Every structure is written in structure tokens, then in C-alpha cells.
Description:
Helix content is 62%, strand content 6%. By secondary structure, the protein is mostly helical.
Amino acid sequence: MIRCLQLVEKCKNMRQMKQAHAQIVTFGLGNNSYAVSRIMAFCSDPQLGSLDHARKLFEQIPKPTICICNTMIKAFLLKLKFVATVEIYKMILQIGMCPDNYTLPYVLKASTYMRNCRLGEQFHGHISKLGLLCDIYVGNSLISLYTGCGAMEEAREVFDEMTFRNVVSWTIMISGYAKQGDIDNACLLFDAAPVKDKGVWGAIISGYVQNNCFKEGLHMFRLMQLENLELDEAVFVSALCACAHLGAMEIGIWIHRYLGQIKLPLGVKLTTALIDMYIKCGNMELAQKLFHGMRERDIVCLNVMLYGLAIHGDGENAFKLFTEMVRDWFIPDDITFIAMFTACSYSGMASEGLDMFNNMNTLYGIEPKTEHYGCVVDFLGRVGMFDEAKEIIRKMHNISSPSEEAIAWRALLSACCNHGETQLAKVAAERLMQLEGHSGAYVLLSNLYSTYEKFDDARRIRKMMKDRGVNKAPGCSFIEVDGSVHEFLASEMTHPRMEEICELLEKMSEQLESSACKPDVLAICLWHGIHLLQSENAKVTKDNHICFQLTYDCLGGVIDAILWFFVVGFEESHDGLLICQINTLSDVDRVVFSSVEQLIWSIDCSTARTISGYLALGCSIGSMAISRDCLESDYA
Length: 636
């Protein structure tokens, strides 16, 4: 018996296992439950085993024990055969066997994967009858089922009924609340947790990030460090995601260095998070260096880099990477094509994008979805191909919900505003207002009317918006200063240095009056009621975020921050920019163009970068970036 079992343990493939099985049968141990369970355990291995062999062996056993049944259930579960897993459980009940605390966690996990809450409720009844809720593994599996199905009330009832809870119980509940967007209850549970290990901390940090509470997520990340807990890959990924959305590159760089200090291996997932952070913070050079240094990549990593190239206006290299990706047998997915269509939008590659869209299904087997149609409308609209854009919207009408169709109409409306197509913009806005009550359509149409000095029409749209009770949420911006993230809301005047900010703005405005730069009218300022400082040949919005940056620089701080503000009306240019400084004009060595809604102000003149699909420019203290096209069109 011992010798036979040793043979099983030494097996490295199914051929050796079948030989060992034959010897076990020869020795008369073919029906020995322990020997059979060891053979089935090997057969259930996803890498080495054979599920068919395990199934045949199981079917030949006249009276399988609960141990053998559990092994078969586990084998099906590991091979993702969830229905078969449940069928074995039903067979156990039919032959009068009693499931144990090993059986139920397996079938509960299968139900979780199937998102079958009703089936889980039946198992819950069996658990109560068997008195197994006191078992920590069964209880945690049941909580995981309910949270996975979004049934948080049922999960909380089970959690409260459990006589013993471990850190896994608390982690599952915190993660469950966070996934449902209930970050308040997640925080309450975190505070109440008697023991907070790295799993509990990781759950709350991830929860904050999932719910767009990026500052809070980074704050909890710092607190976790102070607890001297081991930081795992998942925690670093969440922290880097927060840095990416806040534009907190200084913190992201510190995390990158810290990873090197603790010698945590940079796997594909963690490296992808670093690449994404650098891309969204505008440092494509470091992002590409990391990407090209990877020994192994997956489709997620490739999609991140494709999207990074796209939003930085490098459509040519995005198409090159896509070609290499297909050549290396990576299969594109939905996200891949969204990234490629974004590249077409920001690089003006409408014909290439349209060809790719038409070949999505035939060449790559990807059926276009609403998001793809919306992207196509966007890149067609950007180059003024409005007839083709309208045809795409017509095609998607029958396959999209009203909210999904609204995405395409919004893209068309935005393009109409950029090209001054007032009649089509009116049609798009009216259709968009029918489909959804979002403020975007009203704002864009009013801005368009204001740009062409149709102020009566602009006021009519604003009144319509007010009468219909449509509100626009105030804009929110973040800026990183010496590793600390500052948050501003539109029209907010509560910052402790607001007086200095306003004082410097006035000084900057006075100096700009003598500038030779003449941007277009900033229509968005008219809509929002932002104070517009202007002279005969220069205009600048009173933007608190810009001024805070400048104030900090003038007081001697070194900063590399992302400033969120609108510069609507600047002409789009691929040829670079001029900087209009407070006192003089100077050139920028290198600028990659994407759009004109975002700038980076820095005391380092030698850097220029793009971020999140917007123009980002590294320039000197107290300078204003102006499109060269504006100068050429006005003074050529």
C-alpha cells in the first residue's frame, strides 16, 4: 500500500500515473478509497492531470466516499466546470451522503463564479440545517458568494451571524461594500476590524481607488506604511493607480524607487501599473523604457501602451506596435480597438481608423460595440467627415440603448463645435437632450453660440437648462506640490493662500496685456461665468489652479504638477507652440500635441509632455502657452 502510494507521489505526467494506477489495481487496491482519492487528486491538477481520466475513475466507483466526491468536485472546479461541480453535489444528496465543511466551500465557489445567487441561497439553507455556519471556511465562502452577486444585505446577515470571524471575513466584506460603491460602510467595517493585516488594508485602499477617492487611497497607503506592514503587489498597484489619476508623479516615482529598495519582483501586472502611471503623468520616456525592458507582456500591458501612444498623439507608433502585437500572436480584444481608434482621433488618421473598423469582425473576430462606434464618430468628426459620422450613428441606432447612442451624438456635437457647424450641432444637441438629461449638450451648444456671438441663443440654451432642472457639477482639479496633493473646486475661494494666488494672477494679467499672442475667444469662460481678463490681443482665464502653481514657484518651491483648466478656443497645432512669458517670449524645444485642455507648468524649460489625451507643456515660471497657429493665422 505504502509503495503504491509512493509511486503515485512520484508521478510527473499522466503516462506515469496510468502505470502507477495499473500497479495499484494489480495489488488489489483498485477500490481503496484513499488510493483512489490520491489518483484523482493528481488527475485534477490543471497542468499535469486529466479530467476525463478522473471522471471515468469516479464513475467506476460503486459507493464513493465523501472524500472522493470532494476530490471530484474540486477537479471540476479547477477546470472551471461549474455546472458539473453542482451536479456532483446533487448526487451526494441523492445517495444520502452528508456534505461536509470541505464540500460546501467548493460548491459555493462554483456558484460565485456563475453569479447564481438563488443557488447560493439553497446552499445557505443546507448550511444552516447542517450547522456548518460556525465553520470559518464555509462562512467566508458564503459571504464571498453574496458579495460577488452584489447581495450585500444577505452577506452582512451571514457576517453578523458568524460566531468566529477572521481577517479574511473582514476583507471580503470591505471589498464587497467597495465594489458596490458603498465606501462609507467599507470604512466603518475597516475601523471596526479588530485585526488589520495587509489584506484588510489592501481592501480599503483598493476600495477608495475603485470609487475614485484617490487622495484618500494614497493617504491610507501612507498609513499602512507607518504600520510597518508588508506591502504586496496588489497594494502597490492600487497606489500607482491613484497616482495616475491624480497626476502625482512625484509619489509614483518614489513608489518605483521603493520597489527597487525592497527588491519586490516587477511582474507584468505591477510593471503595467507603473507604465500606466507614467503615461498619465506625462512621462512617456520612462513609460516606454519600462515597456521595452519587459521580458514578458500580456494583452493588458499592450493595451496600456497603445492607449498611451494614442493620447500622446503618436498614432504612427501605435499602429507599429499593433502590427508587432498581431505578428507575435497576441489576440486583440475590445480594449485594443478602443485604444487604436483613440490614436486615430488624436493623430488625425481617420482613413486608417475607418479601415480598421471595417475589418474588426472579418480579420479579428471582434464584433463592434457601442464604444467602438462612438470612437469612430469621434475621429471622423475631428477631421470634418460629418456625413460618414452620421452614417455610423445610423448603423448603431438599432444595436444601442439610448444612453449608449448618446455617447456617439455627444462626440458628434463636440466635433461640430470645433468646426463651427452650427446647424448640425443644433440637430446633435437636440437629439442628445432627448436621449439624456446630461448638462454636456447644453454647455457645448451654448459655448458654440457664444463663440459666434449669438448671445441670445446662448442665453436661451442656459434658460432651457435651468427650466429643465439640469445642473452642471463643478469642475474639480488636483495639483501635486512637494508630494502633497491639493484639490480645488470651480469657484472655490477657501485655499489658505488664495490671496497670494489672486495677487499673482493680477500681475500676470497686466504683463500679458503687452503680449503679441492672440488666442481665440475662450467661449467656455462665457458659459461658466469665469472672470475673463483680456486686452486687445491677449486673454487669460482667472483660474485658481494656475495661479496656485505660479505662486508656489515664485516663493521658491520646485514643482512638476498637472494643472487642469480649459483653454477652449486655442487652435490645434502639430507644429509646436510658443511660450508667452510674463516678460519675454521664448521657444519650446519639444512639444507633442494631443489637445488643448491641459498644461503642465514647471520650472524646467527643457521638458514637454502630454497626458491623458491633453496637451501638456513644460515651461518656465510664469509663462502662458499659446498655439503657434494662432499667431500665424493672425499675423502671417
